[in-house]
Amino acid sequence: MSYVVLARKYRPKNFRDVIGQETPVSILESFIKNNSIPHALIFCGGRGIGKTSMARIFAKAINSEEINSNPQIGDDIDGGKSLDVIEIDAASNNGVDQIRDVIDISQYSSLKCKYKVFIIDEAHMLSKAAFNALLKTLEEPSDNTIFILATTEVEKIPITISSRCQLISFTNLNSSKIEDLIKKVCNRENIKIDEDSIKLLANEANGSARDSLSILELLSNSLNKDIKYKNAISKLGITPKETIYLISTKILNGNVKDSIELFSEICSKGYDIKKFILSLMFFFRSLIYAKLKIDSEDSTIEKINENILTKFKDFSVHEFENIFDNLISSYNSIIKSPNIKISAETTIIKLCLISDFISFETISEEEPKKKVKNINNDNLYKKKELEKSKINNAEKSNGEEKNSLTVEPHVEEEAFNLKENKDKLFESESIKSLFDTFDCRILEIEKENQE
Asked: pTM of the prediction?
């Protein structure tokens, strides 16, 4: 028998085998129990979480009578070979002609099963014309014909289509479910694996059962079924935790030189830059939880031991959050950049500069403050003296007597008599110009009023 990959070998074949999708299972079972099977359904959710497998299981469940009398029908459905349960990959068959063929086939009755089922995978990739062609058939299909549209991007399904279907939402698997699956498969396949590696695989899978088994298979084959954490991170290109801890302290201390040198070392050792940024992001998130003393079941939140935590005791939650927030905003631009290394390096420098300039220890609700770099007082004094000298030279070159313009710091209101001091005031050219301007403006206003 030819080799079967783990993701296919351990694909669920009945509702009991499905993990982490309790709500979709209960909804589909209720449809069958109440004999109210919809003619069109949409299965939506992330990749590798069981949408297509559930569609096959549902197809077998509604045709259980025929399968009980002829088990080969069930095997054909599981293998995608049944003539009554037809799977279409919309990623490669997304044109209107392919959909018209489907519509034509749907007019004929099923051969061996009670229900003819069409499973359209990646349905959101169908063209607009294909959706329009499918519209009427979805609304009024032939008797005992059911359409199941599986998609990872339900928002791209036209509302005219989705409104004619029952929408079933699938969720990403939590880490504990994936860890249980990995342990189960390792026991059956005689694969040795340590706890740290199991958690690593669960994190890398990002909620996908299929991805977790694919990664497990890669490590199992490359490490001769003996998976240890140190070897696993090397094969997957993941930066070691010790390096993450070290570069984090350098960033928080604003040490640009050491941070760049560490990042260059990460690149030279062949670690994945995208995964490095993600690891850094998750670590600062873990620091926030540790600082606030919050326990979480989320496996992406690392349980930081006290020895490591003491290295970060002088930093506040505000500083961790600031770095974390900037990593989130920078991640998308990094992964889309034509030169990921330079983009990531720029982000590291930016994080160092932010940490160096902004001190969150002095933040209060009344008045946020910023730490400012030291300023050279000698240069500032020289600059002020230079400006003062320029002002003095300008005053001397004017040739006007300043005594007539001298004003006391505080003068009582009765001490100054405009009539008596008018002549002295008009000795100043500036005052004369001021009064002339007012006189001209008054004349203009009077002229406007007369007109």
From this structure: 0.72
